[in-house]
Specification:
Elements: E1 2-9, E2 12-13, E3 19-26, E4 29-34, E5 37-42, E6 47-53, E7 56-65, E8 68-73, E9 76-84, H1 87-100, E10 102-104, E11 109-114, E12 121-122, E13 127-133, E14 136-141, E15 146-151, E16 158-159, E17 164-170
Antiparallel strand pairs: 1-2, 1-3, 1-9, 3-4, 4-5, 5-6, 6-7, 7-8, 8-9, 10-17, 11-13, 11-16, 12-15, 13-14, 15-17
């Protein structure tokens, strides 16, 4: 699993602390690829964890505190925020979709209701499509004010993540 670690000190992200990390299960622990090197790590979060760093054995306490990971090593506490490595790409893609007035499926699911028709004038934030995923219904809102110009699905249609559901074209000012 790939993710990004950012160090937090005094409640703020430390400038330049961002690190790309790739973690894979291996044996009794994990193979951690960090700073251009792969390191075997034995142990689990919530207990004393052992790793080989530059050929030397290292022990540290590693645990979760809310959304953060806390590492205690030689009496010092290091707090990290974990962020999905894809996050910047996902945010950029969603901003582009919003600018185009598109609503895409945020997850695999089933379209259970379409709350607009082609030609309807809608306000930004108005729910337009309802998708059911994992027994929960999610109302997806209009990304901007305008007219519904495309409805790409029908009620009862199964959809995959990223599927185009509906497009709203902005009103001409």
């Amino acid at each position: 699993m790939k993710f990004v670690l950012e160090r937090i000190a005094a409640g703020q992200i430390v400038e330049g602390s961002e690190r790309d990390v790739d973690v894979r299960p291996e044996g009794d622990g994990f193979a951690v690829h960090l700073d251009g090197a792969e390191r075997p790590v034995v142990g689990q979060i919530g207990e004393v964890t052992r790793a080989l760093v530059d050929g030397r054995p290292v022990e540290a306490s590693v645990r979760r505190e809310g959304e953060a990971i806390v590492v205690e090593y030689h009496g010092r506490r290091y707090t990290y925020r974990v962020r999905d490595a894809r996050a910047p790409k996902i945010v950029r893609r969603r901003q582009e979709e919003t600018a185009r007035g598109e609503i895409h499926a945020p997850m695999p699911g089933l379209v259970v209701e379409i709350l607009a028709e082609v030609g309807d004038t809608v306000e930004a934030g108005r729910p337009l499509v309802v998708i059911e995923a994992m027994k929960m219904q999610n109302a997806l809102p209009a990304p901007l004010s305008g007219k519904v110009t495309v409805i790409a699905v029908k009620t009862g249609t199964p959809v995959e993540t990223g599927a185009l559901l509906l497009t709203v074209t902005p009103d001409e000012a």
